Amino acid sequence: AALQLPFTALSGGDNDGAKPARLAQQPGSTPPVDWPYRSLPWGDLNVLATTDTHGWLLGHQRNEPSYSGDWGDYYSFVQRMKEEARRRGVDLLLVDSGDRVDGNGLVDAEPSPHPKGYTALSIFSRVPYDVVTTGNHELYKFPVASYVSSVMHDKFGDRWVVSNVNITAQDEVTGREVERLLGNRMRRFTTEQGRKVVAFGPLFDFKAHAAGIAVQAPSAMVKEQWFQEAIASAPDVFLLVGHMSLRIEADSEWTAVVRAIREVHPTVPVLVFGGHHHIRDCVQEDEYSMSLASGRYFETVGFMSVAGLNDSSTPPVFKRRYIDQNRNSYEYHAGKGFDTDEGKAITQELAETARRFNLTDQFGVAPQDYFLHRFPHTDRRSIFHLLTTSVLPSLITRPDRPSPPYTVLNTGSIRFDLFKGPFTRGDQWQILPFANNFLFLRDVPRGLAERLLHHLNLVGEHGFAEASQTGREYTAEERAWLTQQGADVRAAADSAALEHAHRLRSLATTTPDGRWRMRRASEGYVTLDACGGDDPAEQFGDDTAHRPYRSARQPVFVATALPHKTEQVDVVFFDFIVIDVLRGLNALGGGHKAARRYRLDDVERYVEWVSANTLMEEYAKRAWN
Ligand SMILES: Nc1ccn([C@@H]2O[C@H](COP(=O)(O)O)[C@@H](O)[C@H]2O)c(=O)n1
Q1: Is residue 35 part of a domain?
Q2: Inside any domain, residue 4
Q3: Which atom of ligand 1 is nearest to the CA of 2?
Q4: Could you report the predicted ipTM of this complex, rounded to two decimals?
Q5: Most C-beta atoms within 10 A of its C-beta, which of 55, 85, 343, 344?
Q6: Nearest-CA residue for atom 1 of ligand 1
Q7: Nearest to 96 by CA among 68, 65, 138
Q8: Based on the domain organization, do 299 and 397 belong to the same domain?
Q9: Is residue 389 situated within a structural domain?
């Protein structure tokens, strides 16, 4: 998790200090400035895709006009696109690949007595999705998984598809605990234009789920009798909507699923919609299939079309686009005055919800921007620099402890940029949404603690994806090699992206409709994926031209400075990584007879008064007022 794939820039935000930040109290968002430069390539069957929305239904309200639409705008757009599909006599399907909780106050700050996501999931469910599935974030805590499962069943019925996850529930009759499916294993349906679809919703082989949840590896799922029966006869298309990355170093977990289908149906089109790594990405497993990932945080609406479905003698033609999520994009593709009454009502409801959840409460005023991915973690413009040199050293301390703290942070726990200007409760939820507690191991020899960070970064979080294909962890050498490979690919991708940005910018003066007249392209996604083929115009799927974001590869773990002049330190960390820290210290001490083994019993709570999701609030109140 939190792996940085090298194919697109990841950072959000476009406020290099020049523009004044918008006041958080102002409702509504920064209006978009850019326009798409080409229309959507409609086919016989078309799909709009979202993934990893993490509660960002209000869109990006500050500093990021490219993603400033909201769920109400999207709802209107969907309605207009459905009308357009009917006018053309083609199909338009809607899919979402999971991770709807964790990452935004709108979904995480639900006031009691309601469970997390009560309001946001109800608003999310107004969009008439054809297939929705779970992500890993729905499964970290059992009560969240249980609530999400029941609400998605209620709202979506057979369209809630989760093929390989079980949950423990109480049997109504016997009162005993039984294992149930989290969602429907599959969906078989016929589209408005009469095409037969078989849909599945696999989750990657996720290990860090709560007790009471069971996830079956996709490679095992495809061997199940129910799956083999489900694919026995040929539909017109297979639709795979799952929370899995399109590529993890070598084969992705999608490959196993597509291959299993291919053993039975070599030429039935397979449309794959993935997610999880928060990037725009596209690959083709073969010429009868396309796989799309539609970014993160409701920045992107993915579009895939397939044409030529009526002619089985040649492979169909797949196309893909990444639409910047804003009102200009919606207007360009759906026409002026695209708003519908229902869409406008959703926009209104979202603003009221944000007010009701007190998301605009201000804790302080941030003096500058701090970015998640743009700069190395040691740069003063990086949020990790802020955390490790200022926030943690000033707040996470214990005067009663003789050993000074050495705090290790998993970078995956920090989720977004922190912008210059008013710092609000809403910002706090976007940056650190998890209720993780600070734990510690007391009096660890300094010489051992000193080697911990390097070791953790070699091994990765939870054993670096625990190499689901092989069932074992990568060795330190393999990990170092993979990191180097990633850096090389990223360098190549960055230079191609820059070249593309230059080429598109030169288009600005020649675009005939006159709507796209940027003197200086704004920063945004410039995505070098693997679906462009030989056509230069199709090399990049982004439908709005941008100058690429700066980006820097981030380590999996960072830490505060190691205290000097001390024999021992207290090693402090979030509860989420307790196993990583214990394993790490024991591995580093391994081989020495005298070395003690650290066990869960040795772990204690370090501070009670602050946790991950209140850390920045406490800091802002003290440092930014
Ligand atoms: N309580 C938690 C839960 C998760 N994390 C971090 O999030 C990562 C997973 O997020 P994805 O969007 O990549 O699925 C996970 O690897 C952790 O780094 C956490 O810190 N605390």
Answers
A1: no
A2: no
A3: 13
A4: 0.99
A5: 55
A6: 434
A7: 138
A8: no
A9: yes
Q: Which residue has the higher pLDDT, 452 or 20?
A: 452
Residue nearest to atom 17 of ligand 1 (CA): 412
Nearest-atom number in ligand 1 for the CA of 277 is: 13
CA of 1 to the centre of ligand 1 (A): 7
> Does the beta carbon of 562 lie inside 6 Å of ligand 1?
no
Report d(CA 373, CA 456) in Å as an integer. Answer: 20
Does the CB atom of residue 465 touch ligand 1 within 6 A? no
**Model confidence over 586-616: pLDDT tens digits?**
999 876 777 789 999 999 999 999 999 999 9
The domain total for the chain is 3
* Distance from residue 136's CA to the centre of ligand 1 (Å): 9
Return left, alpha or beta for 283; rule: phi > 0 is left, psi -120 to 50 is alpha, else beta.
beta
Does the bond joining 113 to the residue before it have cis omega, within 30 degrees of 0?
Answer: yes
Kindly state if the Cβ of 463 falls inside 6 Å of ligand 1: no
The model's pTM: 0.89
- Residue 428: which domain range? 362-461+556-623
Domain boundary among 501, 531, 548: 548
Distance 73 CA to ligand 1 centre (A): 29
Q: Does the C-beta of 2 come closer than 6 Å to ligand 1?
A: yes
The answer, yes or no, to whether any atom of ligand 1 lies below 6 A from the CB of 436, is yes
Segment 402-432, tens digit of pLDDT = 999 999 999 999 999 999 999 999 999 999 9
Cα-trace Rg, the chain: 24
Tokens of 458: 């070699």
User: Which of 488, 522, 548 is where one domain is finished?
Assistant: 548
DSSP state letter for 190: E
